[in-house]
Amino acid sequence: MKESIQALRQExxxxxLTDLASVEQFRLSxxxxxxxxxxxxxxxxxxxxxxxxxxxxxLNELKDLATDRWKVAQTALEDQLPAGDVPQDLSLPDxxxxxxxxxxxxxxxxxxxxxxxxxxxxxxxxxxxxDDWHNFGALNxxxxxxxxxxxxxxxxxxxxxxxxxxxxxxxxxxxxQNQKPPIRTLSPGRVYRNEAISARAHCLFHQVEGLYxxxxxxxxxxxxxxxxxxxxxxxxxxxxxxxxxxxxxxxxSAEIDISCQICHGEGCNIxxxxxxxxxxxxxxxxxxxxxxxxxxxxxxxxxxFGMGIERMAMLKYGVRDLRLFTENDxxxxxxxxxxx
Length: 340
Ligand code: DAH
Fold this sequence. Notes:
By secondary structure, the protein is an alpha+beta fold. The protein is elongated and about 105 Å long. The model has no long low-confidence stretch (mean pLDDT about 95). It has helices spanning about 1-15, 20-30, 35-45, 50-80, 105-115, 130-135, 170-180, 220-235, 285-290, 310-315, 330-335; strands at about 120-125, 130, 155, 160-165, 185-190, 205-215, 240-245, 250-260, 275-285, 300-310. The chain starts with a helix and ends in a 7-residue tail after the last helix. 3,4-dihydroxyphenylalanine (DAH) binds near residues 209, 247, 280, 304 and 306.
């Protein structure tokens, strides 16, 4: 028995495994059930009891040797072949163990929350299906005011008073109704607009709202907070500018622009060759809004801001088409695996 094992061992060691045919022949001769190694295992029954331990060990070694040689040869062959020619079992599931990753919008949202929580902002939420008053009325949009036109949305047919919120500013009204100043809160969430889907617009996107109400809050506080924020989220070199604007719920109001993160001011099609990109709106909370939620505007002042999360993610990661965020293409999403 020992001699047969030794002879087979030499055969296995000497075999040349260079191409598919020789590797397959090797498998049939030494690895397969009907092969020579297994045949020796069948003879094992005749080995006298006192030799069994030693012979058993030799047999097992022989089996491992044959399997290892075959596996190594097989892998080497597959590595040499162009990918398409690798013999494949197409019924196998996709590569197992591929780890999922956070969505880029989730990564940016978490980062924004972290930055504002460092300076004392808490979190608040409101419903996506909102009533007219919280979305418009309380925020000083009179009925039929043209400012509503810019935020057309989807209405609930059975109850025209209900709509999909057009901005996270609706959460401002809810928080101020239920809390006493000082209020310092951040409200991230999904919002909707009646827009055709394109590289720059979507009927569904995400915003983050900020609100600070206290005695003696000024526009300087607003600027200071947003300076801090953009430098943290983007780079310390990022510049910010406030452009006078109009929102019914703030007075004065300003659009927030930051220096283009793609071309750094050189001019590109993302910033339309101006070097600046708008990331949101801001302003001092209009006294009418404070009154409508029962806060005395003679005592308290406050600032608010609302920014687009997609817009910030696009600038941060150089994403040029908004649709990528909702297409679920894993080739796109996988690129953020290391970040989230
Ligand atoms: N809600 C505005 C929009 O969606 C953005 C905005 C502007 C929010 C000014 C604010 C603000 O809080 O003060 O266009």
